[in-house]
Design brief:
This protein has 151 residues and is mainly α.
Amino acid sequence: MLWGKTTTEGRHAEAAVHGAVRTGVYVGLALASVFTAWVILANRAPFLELFGRERNLAATTILGLFGLLPILRYRGAPRLLLLCGVVGWAMLSFVYRLLCIFFTGLSGIRTPTEVLMFGVLFYLIAATVAWMASLVWRVRQSASQETHAHR
């Protein structure tokens, strides 16, 4: 809201931001839940050690699918894509930091800051690609409208 004036466009933008944050929180909860279950099963369920490769493949696949949700949801709105993805990944990074307290070897693999930066970089690249694709799409639309107007 700018200087006490509310506009329909401003309210729609504010609602879109709230929706992106809410989606990011849900994605973060899903990522954190899957990752926590993965780490606990990998470290506290020795009977699953025979299926370690399959367990890791299943967990990374599920994490990847949940990580793609912001991209699929906001591919036409790069700012919201970035906001949603970073909120979700920040939640995962925080849970990773908490898990590092209980599983000390976890921080030897990746630090929580590295985990956060990997996610932020991934969503920055995705938002940039979405932004460039939207630019190309708009240029093509305007060029096709000009072509049809001159006929």
